[in-house]
Amino acid sequence: xxxxxxxxxxxxxxxxxxxxxxxxxxxxxxxxxxxxxxxxxxxxxxxxxxxxxxxxxxxxxxxxxxxxxxxxxxxxxxxxxxxxxxxxxxxxxxxxxxxxxxxxxxxxxxxxxxxxxxxxxxxxxx
Length: 126
Known about the structure:
Elements: H1 3-8, H2 10-36, H3 38-44, H4 50-63, H5 77-86, H6 91-125
């Protein structure tokens, strides 16, 4: 089985679709949390002030929504999703870039682990 076979396998594509869909749902929950609990977030941290939020919102215009692609990657995804809610990105914008990010992340994971599995299989079979 080659890498191309791995990416065209129906089961792998179904797995990618399901993992992406579940990740998007989780991201929307995190986004809604950031959107609805903004005041609580400011209340429990002394590092993030409303003045910093104004500066970040100004930076949001410069960097833009494509940075939300990072919300699909492990470890940095949940904070990015919450930050997207706090910064009041539109839900459709978040869904578009978050879905692209999760699809990229999941595809990279399949490629990395799939290639590793192929290498181990060749190593075992001799």
